[in-house]
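Query protein
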Amino acid sequence: MSVMIEDGLFDRFPVQAVYAMHNWPAMKLGTVGINPGPTMTAADRITIEITGRGGHGAHPYQTVDSVLVAAHIITAVQSIVSRSVRAIDSAVASLCAMQVGDPGAMSVIPGKATLVGTVRTFNPVVQDMVERRLSELCSAVVLGFGATATVNFERIYQAMINSAHEALFAAGVAESIVGGEQVVRDLDPSMGAEDFSFMLQVKPGAYLRIGQGSAGALLHSSRYDFNDEILPLGAALHAGLVE
């Protein structure tokens, strides 16, 4: 969406406000959830490249073990949120992939390791702090083992912030369609991310979530079953916002 905006989307098609919605298995079928303010997080990609010195598994004293260094970094990174982020703020730092060595080479200590993960934050100040602490921790850990590391912190998606007026307006439209009891006006923010955030950076608007009931699998699962029963509700919400 950022490319669309850079390409002049809103210059070619001027709008007063923008709205989007997403099916949500954590909510009951036919309900609508929304909240003003932070709704989804910024999503950043972290890549940590560790360089040690490879060698024979029978002679580890001759190496700088990148597997060991990576393990200590994985553990240390978990302290960022628990010990550097205020409890009243929200952040997630997850290392989700590790590439090192060869399963077929049981006695080879590899010289390089790569860790990949994601950081999620709502507040740019917290985002900056997590990036700084990540770099500091990795530098300190590898120094202790005689290795080196590079940390690449890529800012992919911005935090998605519903503007207050449009969120209240959308909630009112939803109430007119499904009734007040079926609308959750203070839905908890999600630590997921959404590229609709780029549109909300330049236009006021809001992001709604439509309850579809439990699908038996989480979002983005290969076994997720979209509930077609909510399609008329989604269409009605879009039409209601326009009307």
Notes: DSSP finds seven helices and twelve strands in the chain.
